[in-house]
Amino acid sequence: MFDDLPEVVPVTVRELDTIQIHLGDLIDRLIADAASATDSNPLPPPTPKAHRGPGPRS
């Protein structure tokens, strides 16, 4: 994948936490599934996790 941005776009810790909260389980399962090619069972949908960390800013 390529982009035409003039420089590296910084990603904040809060943004990484958000990605982990919403996609962490799915990514972990996809990696585990790729590592064990003998498992042919489809992945179940990820279960939502409770939000960790500070709430919305006001």
Please provide a brief summary of the model:
This protein is an all-alpha fold and 58 residues long. Helices cover 40% and strands 0% of the residues.
List the helices and strands and how they pair.
Elements (H helix, E strand, L loop, with lengths): L12 H23 L23
C-alpha Rg (nearest Å): 16 Å
Strand segment tally:
0
Judging from the principal axes of the Cα atoms, what is the shape? flat
| Strand content bin | under 5%
Extract low-pLDDT stretches: none
How many individual helices? 1
Helix proportion range: 25-40%
Structural class: mainly alpha
Order of helices and strands: H
Major sheet characteristics? none
Mean pLDDT: 77
Q: Distance N terminus to C terminus?
A: 36 Å
Question: Care to describe what's here?
Answer:
It is a single chain. The chain is mainly α and 58 residues long. The chain has a domain at 11-36. It is built from 1 helix and no strands. The longest helix has 23 residues, at 13-35. The mean pLDDT is 77.
Features:
about 60 residues, mainly alpha
